[in-house]
Design brief:
Layout: E1 6-10, H1 17-24, E2 28-33, H2 43-51, E3 58-63, H3 68-77, E4 82-85, H4 91-101, E5 105-111, H5 118-124, E6 129-134, E7 164-166, H6 175-182, E8 186-189, E9 194-196, E10 199-200, H7 202-213
Parallel strand pairs: 1-2, 1-8, 2-3, 3-4, 4-5, 5-6, 6-7
Antiparallel strand pairs: 9-10
Helix pairs in contact: 1-7
The protein binds ligand LGQLAAA5.
Residues 10-11, 30, 32, 34, 37, 39, 62, 64, 86, 133, 142-147, 167-170, 188-192 line the site of the ligand O=C(O)c1ccccc1N[C@@H]1O[C@H](COP(=O)(O)O)[C@@H](O)[C@H]1O.
Pfam family, one: PRAI
Catalytic activity: N-(5-phospho-beta-D-ribosyl)anthranilate = 1-(2-carboxyphenylamino)-1-deoxy-D-ribulose 5-phosphate
Keywords: Amino-acid biosynthesis, Aromatic amino acid biosynthesis, Isomerase, Tryptophan biosynthesis
Length: 214
């Protein structure tokens, strides 16, 4: 039986990635604003790309511990529907960003072991969505987008009172199992639909969405 799993394809870097992600069936497209990432966009490129996204597809900006000056510039230049906070932002900072910019906020939470789950309850009180991702490896240059999965059994059967997405090391080959193991209704992918870091692959995007919904 097919499911209506919603997919976010994150880290689009080329204008042609937008129609490819939409044809594949993405419900969300993500733009990365983190200079250490191979998916980093400058504001001009992001503005151009975001403007070409049709109504109904959620445009998400991913930032890492961004200050107000950076978020002011970003939100003034790029038409956005959601902010994804992927750093060490506190629950208070999530609340502040939400009220300052009037956009829904998705907070990413890195999971490696059972103890990492306790913070979810604090963020669940202030965020609009949660992104349950793998904790980055110790020597990683970035807090996400590392093609690393966590032990999905840690969240099997868990439910939270707000929408959430599963992320971390998802690929067309493992996303079906990830959805079955966790009960996720939404999934987020970056590396798993690339042919090289920062280069999205149209066929992998199709394969990913198909497998997520199978
Ligand atoms: O994609 C990035 O480069 C990135 C940089 C900094 C923070 C987060 C980043 N990506 C996010 O991480 C998840 C998981 O990535 P992957 O599928 O394991 O490569 C991704 O969906 C982005 O939301």
């Amino acid at each position: 039986m097919a499911h209506d799993t919603r997919v976010k394809i994150c880290g689009l870097t080329e204008t042609a990635d937008i129609p490819a992600a939409i044809v594949a069936g993405a419900s969300y497209v993500g733009f990365v604003f983190f200079p250490k990432s191979p998916r980093h966009l400058d504001l001009e490129a992001a503005q151009f790309m975001a403007t070409s996204v049709p109504e109904g597809i959620v445009k998400v900006a991913l930032t890492v511990d961004a200050d107000n000056a950076m978020l002011d510039e970003l939100t003034q230049h790029v038409p956005l529907d959601m902010l994804q906070l992927h750093g060490k932002e506190s629950p208070a900072r999530v609340s502040e960003v939400k009220s300052r910019y009037g956009l829904p906020v998705m907070k990413a939470i890195g999971i490696e072991s059972e103890t990492d789950l306790t913070q979810i309850d604090f963020y669940a009180k202030v965020a609009d969505q949660l992104l349950i991702d793998a904790k980055p490896p110790k020597d990683a240059e970035r807090p996400g987008g590392n093609a690393v999965a966590f032990d999905w059994s840690l969240i099997a059967g868990r439910r939270w009172p707000l929408p959430w997405m599963l992320a971390g090391g998802l690929t067309p080959e493992n996303v079906g199992e990830a959805v079955r193991a966790t009960g996720a209704r939404q999934v987020d992918v970056s590396s798993g639909v690339e042919s090289a870091p920062g280069v999205k692959d149209a066929q992998k995007m199709v394969d990913f969405v198909t497998a997520a919904r199978a």
